[in-house]
Every structure is written in structure tokens, then in C-alpha cells.
Automatic annotation (TrEMBL):
Residues 36-137 form the Methyltransferase type domain. It comes from the Bacteria. It comes from Williamsia phyllosphaerae. The lineage of its organism: Bacteria, Bacillati, Actinomycetota, Actinomycetes, Mycobacteriales. Coiled coil: none annotated. Pfam families: Methyltransf_12. This is Methyltransferase type 12 domain-containing protein.
Amino acid sequence: MEAFYALATEDYRQLALAADWPALLADRAHGGWSLLDVACGSGKFPTALRRHTDLSAVPELAYDLLDPSAFSVAEARGVLGAPFAARHDLVMTLQDLPVEYSGYDVVWATHALYALPPAELDAAAERFVAALAPGGLGLIAQATAASHYLAFYDAFRAGVREATPYTTAEQVRDALVRAGADVRDQRITYTTGTSDRGVAEGFLQRCAFDDSVSLDEMEAAPVLGDYLASCRDVSGSYTFSHEAALLWL
């Protein structure tokens, strides 16, 4: 994970800088307001917001942590700080969230829904929309089909082992529309990279959710090897191109 976040921390910095978060949050602040972090992971997005934006004028916000991993929920709870005040730990999937957990002023899912089963995408989108209070702020940030995360995994599936594809931003957007949401699609592009093969290997293994395949094996694999070669320069350094959709509700 250390090697992964040596590069992937940039994903969250980009999201923190993509909008005027202090104003967006302050505009919705009121007594007893609340936020639901869907598939919260280890809390990288609220950490990035606190590091890269000034939230000093945002009043305390009750923060519910949802993730199927109890370990992730505990990690995210441990890094929260003002204005975010941890409240409920919800160890479950979005699809399984009880209906009484609704009326949130803010609901977000940031780089969180890639492994969502295709058959459950519509149910998850409906639950996301239903969790948001009228006039609330919703955001799903997800890599597009053109981004490294999706392109790499498609090449990994073709060249190393078959697996269920990752869910794309385009699929999530369409599911939200089917759920009745009015969605604004904002795109951001950026790159990450490294000349350290150890970092590249750890990053790519996490992208594949498989640490049994070495970087040498990835580079030698059909399809995947060609993709990775396209990411390298003459010095051997890797540069990965990213496009993320910010799906605003």
C-alpha cells in the first residue's frame, strides 16, 4: 500500500483542488448536518481536503463511514479531523445500507466503486441517490474508461488472467441517470509516474489487486506488456495518464 499511495495520493489531491470545497460545504452547513463517505477506504480524500484546502470556516460535520472492510473503516476514523467528526461506522456495502440512513447533506464516493459488481450497479446508484437529502451535495469521483486504472486492468485481464472488469465512470454516470439523478459530469486529467521499479511494481500490483505477479512478469505478458511499454520513456521511467470524472448530483 505504501508503494501504491506513493503515486495514488495524487488522485485525492486532484479531487481536493478540482472544486471550491470550503464554499461548497459551507453553503450546506446547518445545525445537525451530516455526511456519508461511501466505500471510505483509509480516508485519503478527507485527508487531502484538510491538507490542500482551508476548511477552518466549515462548522463541525457529522461523518458516517461506510465500507465493507472493518479495517478500512477503522483506518479512516483514525485520520479524521476538524471539521469532520466521526459518527457511525457502517461496515457494509452501499447496496446493503438500511433505508433509515438517509437525508445526508453530503454523500461522496471517491475512487471507490471500481469493484462494484455489474449486476448490483443500479441498486447501488439508487441507494446513493436515496441517501442524499433534497438540495444536498452528491459526488462520485471515478476513473473513466480512458484512464490508467481501467486501461491497465483491461490489459491485465487480457494478458495475465481473466477477471470481472472494473466499473467505469461512464457506467456509474448512466446508472445514476437511470436512478433519476440530474448528473453534471466534470473531467480532470493528470499524470503520475516514477523511475523507481519497486514503487512501480507495488503500484501496479495494487491496481490489479494481485501482488503475486511481478513487474518483470507484467512486462513480459502479452497485451499488458505492450500497454506498460507505452507508459515508459527512454530512461525506463513510468508515466501513467489519468482521466477522472467528477459526477456531481
